[in-house]
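## retry 2 of 3
previous attempt timed out at serialization; input unchanged, resubmitting
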Amino acid sequence: MQTIFVMVKCDLGKAYDVAASAVEDVEQVSEVHSTSGQYDLLMKCYLNEGDDIGRFVTGQLQTLPGVKDTFTLITFKAFS
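## retry succeeded, writing output
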């Protein structure tokens, strides 16, 4: 499993709708948090090893209604 975090900028007034759609419609999305600052949401996603991250983000997340922009963080190791 590989973990990525995707910061999402939403259309005005659409953050809650985008969050609900991501959790309900995209099985790879584990958690969605609202944030302050430049982006509205932070999504934690688990992808299978070898999955194309770019295709996942552009095909599954950027196409959700209300998504305006994304910023993807690829992780390497989790520390407990």
